Amino acid sequence: MAICNKYPQLKATVVDLPKVAQLAERFIEEAGMSCRISVSATDLCSDSPEGKYDVAILRAVIQTLSKEQAQMFLRGISQSMVQGGRIFIFGSVLENSCLAPPASLAFGLAFLNVYDHGKAYTEQEHREMLTNAGFADIAVEHDVLVDGMGMVSAKKI
C-alpha cells in the first residue's frame, strides 16, 4: 500500500495463499485502496496468478520453501510476468561460503527449526533457481534492509 500511496498511477496485485489473501483484502479495503490494489488468492507452488505483470516483489518467501517448492514458485511467477519484467526477492541470502552475512546465517538457522524445508539459500542457489525459471541479469545485494536482509533481482527473458 505504501508504494501505491507514493506512486498514484500505480496499480498493484497482492498474490498470497487464500487464507492470507482474505486478510489482505480486508486491510486494503479499510485503507480505501481497493480501486488500485487487487488480491489474487493463489498458491504459487502449484498455480500462476491470472494476468501479466511488470514487477514481482517477494519478501521472506523463498526461504520458507524446499528448493523444489521454491523452483516451482519462481516458475509460476515467471509465467505471470511480461518479457523484460523485473523480480525483486528480499530476504535471507547467504554468500556462497554459507558463512555470511551474519543476519542471513542466523535466519537460516531459525528457518531450519521453524519450517519443514526452510533454509537460507546461497547466492548461487538463487541464481540457479532464477535461471531455471526464465530469468537473467541476476544481481545480489547484501544488507539492503534495516534487518540486514539482502535482495536478489532479475529480469524475465
Could you explain the architecture of this structure?
Helix content is 34%, strand content 29%. The chain has 2 domains: 1-41, no CATH class; 45-156, Rossmann fold. With 157 residues, it is an alpha/beta fold. It is globular, with a radius of gyration of 16 Å. It has helices spanning 2-6, 18-30, 67-79, 102-114, 123-132; strands spanning 12-16, 37-41, 53-59, 81-91, 93-94, 121-122, 135-141, 150-156.
Task: Reconstruct the topology from this structure.
Blueprint: H1 2-6, E1 12-16, H2 18-30, E2 37-41, E3 53-59, H3 67-79, E4 81-91, E5 93-94, H4 102-114, E6 121-122, H5 123-132, E7 135-141, E8 150-156
Parallel strand pairs: 1-2, 3-4, 5-6
Antiparallel strand pairs: 4-8, 7-8
CATH architecture label of the largest domain? 3-Layer(aba) Sandwich
CATH superfamily of the largest domain: Vaccinia Virus protein VP39
SSE run? HEHEEHEEHEHEE
Helix content: 25-40%
- Rg, Cα atoms, Å: 16 Å
Largest sheet entry:
4 strands, mixed
Counted up, domains total: 2
Give me the count of strands: 8
Strand order of the largest sheet: 3-4-8-7
- CATH topology of the largest domain, what is it called? Rossmann fold
Q: Work out the helix count.
A: 5
Indicate the structural class.
alpha/beta
Work out the strand percent: 25-35%
Sum up the structure in keywords:
four-stranded mixed β-sheet, alpha/beta, 29% strand, globular, two-stranded parallel sheet, Rossmann fold, 157 residues, 8 strands, 2 domains
Summarize the structure.
The protein is 34% helix and 29% strand. It has 157 residues and is an alpha/beta fold. It is built from five helices and eight strands, in the order H-E-H-E-E-H-E-E-H-E-H-E-E.
